[in-house]
Request: fold
Amino acid sequence: MRSTRLVSGVVAGLLLLVPGVRGQVPQQAPAPQVTFKARTAIVEVDVTALDRQGNFVAGLTRDDLELYEDGRRQTIDQFYMVSHDRGGQLLPVTGDQEVLSEDRARRIFIVLFDEAHLAHDSLLRAKAGAETFIRTNIGPGDFGGVFYNGQMSNGRLTTSPAELVAGIKNVRVGFETRQSLLAPFREFPRIPGEVEAARIASGARELVDQLGTVACREDPIACQMNGGELQVENLLQQKAQLYVRQARILTANTLQNLRYVVNRLARIPGRKTVVFLTEGFYVEESRSDLQAIAAEASRGGTTIYSIDGRGLVGSPSAVPDVLSETRGRSLAFDTGEAAPSILTSATGGLSLRNIDDIGRAFNMVVRDTSTYYVIGYQPVNAVMDGKFRKIEVKSSVSGLNLRARKGYAATALPPMEPVRSGWK
Reply:
């Protein structure tokens, strides 16, 4: 799932088997040393293996898995399991002993606030959940960063929970948000949603005629006050065009922030986790951009998780952690949740929705990123041609549910830098 690294010379560093993990297998003889030629790219894929009850399955071997790139089976040169306790301390590793321990012995979490696509209540809920996450899960050995307003808090990654919490407290809601742009859809003349707005803005005249007729039939007084059906149709076009124009600007800013974070993290070896706090955004014209960002993230070893700041939507909010609401948020005009799903599914992460306690959602991310398998291979197609390479991981083990990234962009990685200096 996700981690890609350029390794020069012989892979070094010894991780010893340690007792104490559920489902561990007895210590085996060391696997033969795997040597990689200088400047040879080894692609690493982090894999989550769950049973039917959603529990992590330990004790797998490389013979239990098959890996394919663009439909061609690849030889698994490297295989091991990594597990962390709180604070990023490396616990038992099973499989190959010849690995770079320093790249796996710490966790990196980036909390990325998408302020332009978070309503005020969503932002408060997200901030409270993020602060709980920092206080309960970040410990010695972990690095973190808070990204908001187009920049990393203090311009660096840090191991200080207090510095991370201070960064979270500084996050403010955007001047113009997704919900404020969607609000006019509810007013006369109504537009059903973003898809219809995009179609109208693209010149779908038959849809304008249809919505204009419906509006005047349902509210003839408002229709007359606005100059009749022809003028109502003009209003529909103006409303749709204004929304699309504004939504494009907000989406462009979000994509720019995502790409910036992904590119910077690519310089740091090992696995990185981005927790993207958002309500979703206008996706009709940006699917290819999102797929490209996800491919770049996968190449650089970054997994993206998204948490919907709205909490429970469409029904009463049972356990609000910040605000008491009498009813959930409606999704009637909003189809933006497809955007974060593209990022998370492509990088092997999760999209977490309908969870009021955002702190609990963060705990789900921590659990998912703290125990995993790593499989490494040298692609049969060793040419870094910039194209997208599809990855598929399979297993013959019954009842096993595997999750890994779906592919990566075959591009050269930037020079690796220490985590402490990898952001500036």
Residues 1-40, 315-332 have pLDDT under 50 and may be disordered. The longest helix spans residues 229-265. The radius of gyration is 24 Å. The longest strand covers residues 41-50.
